Amino acid sequence: LQVPRVPSQPTASSESRRFTNKHSKKALKASLTLGILLGMFFVAWLPFFVTNVTQAVCGCVPAGFFDVLTWLGYCNSTMNPIIYPLFMRDFKRAMGKFLPCCRRSGEPRPSAISLSMRNSNSGARAATSLKNVL
User: Fold this and answer.
1) Count of H helices and E strands in the chain?
2) What is the pLDDT of residues 10-38, one digit of tens each?
3) Please, is 69 exposed, middle or buried when counting C-beta atoms within 10 Å of its C-beta (0-12, 13-18, 19+)?
4) How far is the C-alpha of 61 from the C-alpha of 65, rounded, in Å?
5) What is the CA radius of gyration of the chain?
6) What is the model's pTM?
7) CB neighbours of 33 closer than 8 A, spacing ≥ 6?
8) Are the C-beta atoms of residues 42 and 70 closer than 8 Å to each other?
């Protein structure tokens, strides 16, 4: 006797595997970005805070060294706008819409009216009446 086989559904399992791989890649990339941002924060600000506590306890830190560590922390703030576009595609797309240097050649610049209408809860009728007024 032969037992009839039930046809397997390889497409469903491969789709779910593909879905899982896609989300695990996104989670890995998000973890990497967060790790880099936090690592940069600690490298930039930890020496400042340790020196600040040392200065409060013994008062033996030279003023020039303290200033250098303060500026190292400030440099962290300048690194964030560089790190975000490198690792986050959504951030890159959003900035590309508003910065002329990052916009594609065929892409028009959004107008202030379209931006305000997109962010408000008004419908298409209000948008046309506002355009007629202006």
Assistant:
1) 5, 0
2) 555 666 666 677 778 888 888 888 888 89
3) buried
4) 7
5) 27
6) 0.51
7) 83, 87, 88
8) no
